[in-house]
Dioxygenase
Amino acid sequence: MIDQINGLHHVTSLASGAQSNNDFFTKTLGLRRIKKTVNFDAPEVYHLYYGDEAGTPGTVMTYFPFPNARRGRPGTGEVGITGFAVPKGSLPYWQERLATFDVRNIETETTFGENRLRFDGPDGDGFVLVETDGDSRTPWTNNGVPADAAIRGFHSADMRLRDAAASAELLKFMGYEELDRQDNVTRFHVPGGNEANVIDISQVNAPMADQGAGSVHHIAFSVDNRQKQLEVRKALMDTGYQVTPVIDRDYFYAIYFRTPGGVLFEIATNEPGFDRDEDTAHLGEALKLPTQHEHLRQILEDRYLEPIID
């Protein structure tokens, strides 16, 4: 069994526009944009990162905003809901705030004894705010959300699968333990991990998802450093998983593999962090390009990357 994983590192999704995506996460949800860079494989597309002040692993939501991308079709084989942790008693504030910003499909619910507020992102993305008690993470509060309501980071990710069994075994191999079951949902968590340590598996009878704007592209799990990442990679490969070589993503090192249920998993290092090329006080302000794309800066800014107005 793997014991190096701490919980979630980041969640990466697809969007149809950079400005609307930026506005939703910074102005509506009150997160900080911590990095403005580009897709390594398609540099004409932004890669935007949002999180707490420093982009602490377990708080970071990232997006590839493909201009005018068609909307994805929800289904199985994907992460259907991304959960954020908020303080106890803060959901009435959020319900009013989201309504003020014309957020769609706002609904209250209780799951596993937790009060939750579900809503859609600009492209139909599935989100939920979950009231938690004792979350020690320091929130970003410079975008207008008070500290007693601000998002602390991730709470969970909910995978929708036709057959939960094989993915449940994978999570257990990755150090997760089954915590509870409710209806068709099984909850797992990493004991002693970071506070973004919950994964839910919803077993549903539905067609496979068709990815597009609003879809989660992959979820990334946190390990402390490259040595622990290599240990995880070897353990996964010894078990029969096809795992990519280590890829330098500038702010972390990454490996990827496809799960039995079809969800793309990444294992990402906590090092070197988002301050490697920007001071923490100025994270997300300048366009940062991977070294191999720096020579394209002028053409990317002039032709492809829409200006983002903060």
Observations:
- The two ends are 45 Å apart (CA to CA).
- The chain has one domain: 7-304.
